[in-house]
Amino acid sequence: MCKKRVVVVDDSAVIRALVRRHLTEDGRFIVVGEAGDPFEAREVIKRVNPDVITLDVEMPRMDGLSFLEKLMRLRPLPVVMFSTETHKGSIAAIEALSLGAVDCIGKPNAAAPDTIESLAERVFIASNARIPSRQTSTAPPPSSYSWNGKYVLVGASTGGVDALERLLAGYPADCPPTVIAQHMPESFLVSFAERLSNRVRPDVTLARDGERLQAGMVRIAPGGANHLVLSESRKDITCRLRPGEKVSGHRPSVDMLFRSARPFASRVLAVLLTGMGRDGAYGMLELRQAGAQTIAQDRDSSVVYGMPRVATEIGGANRTLDLDRIAAGILEETGRGASAAPNARAAAK
Question: Where is the CheB-type methylesterase domain positioned along the sequence (predicted)?
Fold first, then answer.
């Protein structure tokens, strides 16, 4: 097996040695460079061309988030943040994920002494991610939009923070009612919803049990002990939080969300974004078979082409689209004037 080439960026020599030891002992890596700040890191990365880097947030001369933004714009590659600033739910963690980091791991401390134990596996997963160019941008939302009654269900995992932010940037304030299941710890989801609410036009919050969906609303599954499902009553669609075991390996589960919408599939557009595994793929197939329209993110724009790949291969996706075309595709399908035929776009790829 070809070992993954890693650069470790941290101003602490002790932390660099800790990371180097754990990755080397794992056997799947070779640490090809180290740097104490982003300026050193820039030169090391140019020289050794790593597969993945670990990156601290607080460093001299330039902070890690500023360096991450420059790196993703000029030379995209997989990054795992390893910092005291990226423990569960931190604003820095969500910012890093939005900028394109694949994962965020908190450094060991009294509250979380064992985070180092997961480092090797998470760095290995990140090293296999594809980091698309960020040169393109989502088209601005249309000046006029009128909802046709279709609801949007979105599933995402690895790479989903950036993908969802870019997708929702293309939404108008009166967007179609949209429900999102993103694989993420509960505390991260709180920070993520708050970030989106300050950056996009629609009303974005975590979903609440019994809340009726309306135009202009984006609701995110809160995770924790609950799955998010939908129910239909007198043509209204309502959010329901349901405790339960993980489904397809996750809670919140995209499959759970998608399958709950089968009774009203003709009123649904399901979207599956970047992510590892297959959660949502079979739920999407079942929705399509029941009459829903479906979109999967394409390979080239996905950080991890797992969930959308499976959905496409098994026939769950009507269309595959580049990330920066998905918002327009959603608005086209859910706006007045869209085709009412459930499989009108089935052949479009």
Answer: 140-337
